[in-house]
């Protein structure tokens, strides 16, 4: 019989504390007790949050790139419109092809998080005449103490390091209102430094392909993120590294993770991922109701959050449902 658990922000805090104490005693989370909810919830919620916040930041970077004509090579007559969130300011160095996003944590505008720090966006080969709309153009994103604080429980997560985005088939997000058009980006990051709210630092790497579309029915941009890498003998891998509790892990997207600009890049509407390498693999399903069933309502952004499923060492099925 499957046990379903819905966890509030306060409960997550208590579970996290329990998991941290457990990890200090064991040093690794490779030994699983029948009630492993705290450890599994910590592993899964950390991974989901890192993934969602990176997508949110990348969405800001793409908005900035598409909106800056000197770097983007934007053509006149395109009707797509994009705007940055109210907590970020854009500075443009048109001489060197560098954009800087500066986040203001005194401004709370998206109903979920406060953000601080900077993200520098540099178009490589800019002085050789490349523009972001050119097929094969690549930008490097540098995270400088980019910190996200969750409003529900004030937990923070901080990013430092670099990642690259290649504009595989070219074009800009502004171009996407054209019928049936798509833009494909390939994303890579080696050893990003992730600092969790308890001060723990870990190195995580990223490899994925992102496809952008325009949804005319919602007048919104949509992204579909897929794995494109084989790592550790696994296919469709999108992320790997070491968990907060000091276990190596791999993350696969077995069904693309889909989100859009109306609901927020940090609120996927569908998708399935598998977190493996830890004591017991976890299946993660995005875009669900509070009871863990798939959201099928008429309101596009009505999904509650995501669910995690696994089987513990005693053979019992477990499920945790968390809000975005």
Overview of this protein structure:
The protein has 3 helices and 16 strands. With 324 residues, it is an alpha+beta fold. The protein has one domain. It has a 16-stranded mixed β-sheet that branches. A hairpin with a 5-residue loop joins β15 and β16. It is globular. The two termini are 27 Å apart. About 8% of the residues have low confidence.
Number of domains: 1
Shape summary: globular
Give the N-terminus to C-terminus distance in angstroms: 27 Å
Quote the beta fraction. 35-45%
Question: How big is the Rg?
Answer: 20 Å
In terms of per-residue confidence, which ranges show pLDDT below 50 for 5 or more consecutive residues? 7-33
Per DSSP, the total helix count is 3
Largest sheet: 16 strands, mixed
Question: Which class best fits the helix and strand makeup?
Answer: alpha+beta
The helix content, as a percent range, equals 10-25%
Strands, count: 16
The whole-number mean of residue pLDDT values reads: 85
* Helix-strand pattern: EHHHEEEEEEEEEEEEEEE
